[in-house]
Structures are given as structure tokens and as C-alpha cells.
Amino acid sequence: MSLPDIVQSTLDGESVAARVGLGGDDLLLVTPTRTLVYRAEGLLSDETVEEYPHDAERVGVSEGRRKAKVTLDYGLDGERTFSVPTKQVDQVLHPVLAGVFNARDITDRGETVKQTYRFSELTIVITSARLVRHIGAAVWDEEYEEYHFDDVTDLDFEEGSVATSVVITVDGRQERFKAPNDQARAVREGLVSAVCAYHGVDDIEELRTSTASAEPDDESTADTDADEDGTVSFGDGPGPLDTSGVEGDVTEGATSEATAREATADEERTEAATERGEGFGDSGFRSAGVVDDEVARELAELRKQIEAQNERLERQERTIQRLIEELRQGR
Fold first, then answer.
1. Domain count, the chain
2. Main-chain phi, psi angles of 63, to 5 degrees
3. Beta carbons within 8 Å of 273's beta carbon, 6+ residues apart
4. Roughly how many angstroms between the first and final C-alpha of the chain, as a whole number?
5. Could you give the C-alpha distances from 135 to 101, 146, 177, 178, in angstroms and in order?
6. Distance of CA 280 to CAs 273, 276, 297, Å?
């Protein structure tokens, strides 16, 4: 389908990586360097094209019943905002985020952005080489975390009553986030597919086997691009955009009441596990009926519970900070 002359003129020969219809003849077009929003001629307005460069420091979304606003923050250069139908905001965000990641050198040359998911204040972006996680009111800003698939040795998925915990083992440590159960299958399939494709294996069991066999050489073959804090350094160029795999409506996570009950239960389990783990800690004696593998299982369970509790404490802290912010705004 040909583009209007005014769009062709604005493109000035630059390729279009993605296009999203905004209703009627209106279009959103994404190039490697910018997003273009075309508004067709109407009864009260002429046709226009607005440009939004991808070198933004922050991407935010505010949603109404019918319209959503996407805001790109350029720091000292201010903000630019455009509106889209709320039902299409996720279709729009996927290529826009891909363009921003390319422009900000978050993705390497040849790396594609495969899926984008939003769960309340959690944004998950899966590329062909890494997982990017952002927590906060913004969809994305420079306070993000990333986990390169080079360092991923295992994936696990723990189903709960309202959400599924996604557990990623990165450089021997576990990183977690939760996806609502109605979106968990899509996240699982997308993440497993991307990680297995990166490592050239067919499934997670094969990934575990291949990474386990490589463990003795980990120190000598460690990725020199990793910083001491585990953050993988960025590559040196933008990659092509991939607009496949955009999810639909956003589903909220667990209710605060369910979260509180779950946190309380975890606290009780953690205390009980800690008492078991500390029973012989300082005495120098061991129970005659406990064998080494039983101790190992108890320690593993204790560590798992403590990690889960830490995650809930972090979430509670974020909730408190959000409440403070809303109180300051008079909400």
C-alpha cells in the first residue's frame, strides 16, 4: 500500500520498519530513527505528519477510556506527546520501544525486539539476545535492568493462584518477576523460544544440560562485556525492528489483599525454614537422622523462600513510594 505524498516527503528515503493503523486513514510509522504520526485530512484540519525522534530518555503512557497518550521525554529538550486509540496502545508501543532501544544502543547490531509485555508497573521486553525489565510508572526509562541470554543457564515457572513467577538463572543467581496467569503462557513461550534459539537448543532441559557441561570453563570463558554488577554492556549499533508478537490488552496483577496474604504466608514459611536451618548452626553437631542431601534440600528451600520474601519486600517498598508520590500530587 502506497503512502501519502506528505509522508513520502517526510521520510526522505528512510525505510519504514513498522506501520500501525490508527483508525480511518491515520497511520503511525516507525523508522530506525524516528516515529511518524500521519493524520489524514478532515473536515476541520489538513493532513499533517509529526516526527518523534527515538533518542528519548523516557517513554510513558497514560490511558483513558478511548484515547491513550504516548510521551517521549528528551530530557533538557522537553517532552513530545501523541495520542492513539487505547485499544491499540500496545501495538504502537512495541515498535516505538524497539526504535528507542535501537537508537539508545540497548540492542546490538542484528538484534531484534520480539515481544513487549506490560503488567501494571512492570514492563518486560524480550529481544533475540536479552530480556529487558523496567519497574515504575514509566513504560521505560534509563533505570532498567537487562539479562543477556549469554548468561542465562536455566528458566523456571512457578504457578500461583493469580500470577506465575518467572525465574531466570543468570550467572548462578536467580532473578524473578511475575506475570498474570492469563498472560503467563505467552510470556513463557516467548521467553523459552528466544533463549533456546539463542543457545541453539530445542528445550529447557537441553539448555540445562549444555550449560551444566560448560560450567568448569565458566571462569575462563566468561563474557568480558559483563560489568561487576552483572549489567551487560551495550553493543555498537542499531538492529532491525521486528514487530511480531505484540500482545493485546494489559491485565492487572494480583490484588493488594491477595498480595498481603501471600506475603504473610511467605514470612511464616521463611521463619519456620530459618529455624530448621539454624538448629545445629553453632553447636558443631548434626542430627543423626539427617543426611547430606536432606540438608542440601533444606538449604535450597530456605534460600528460595528468602529470595521470594525479598521480592515481596521490594514490591511493598515500591507500593509505599508510589503512595507517597500520589499523596504529594493530591490524589
1. 3
2. -115, 130
3. 298, 301, 302, 305
4. 46
5. 16, 12, 10, 12
6. 13, 9, 16
**Has residue 238 got a pLDDT over 70?**
no
One-letter identity of residue 59: V
> What angle, rounded to 10 degrees, do the helices at 256-278 and 292-328 form?
140
C-alpha count within 13 angstroms, C-beta hemisphere, residue 135: 15
Confidence label for 181 from pLDDT (cuts 50, 70 and 90): very high
Whole domain around residue 312: which residue ranges?
256-280+289-328
Given this model, what pLDDT does residue 246 score?
A: 36
Can you tell me the distance from the alpha carbon of 152 to that of 199, in angstroms, rounded to the nearest whole number?
9
- Classify residue 199 by burial, with Cβ atoms within 10 Å: 0-12, 13-18, 19+: middle
Residue 145 inside a domain? The answer is yes
Contacts of 285 (CB under 8 A, 6+ apart): none
Question: Residue 144 maps to which CATH number?
Answer: 2.30.29.30
**Three-state DSSP state, 148:** strand
Helix (H, G, I), strand (E, B) or coil at 326: helix
Is the whole-model pTM more than 0.85?
Answer: no
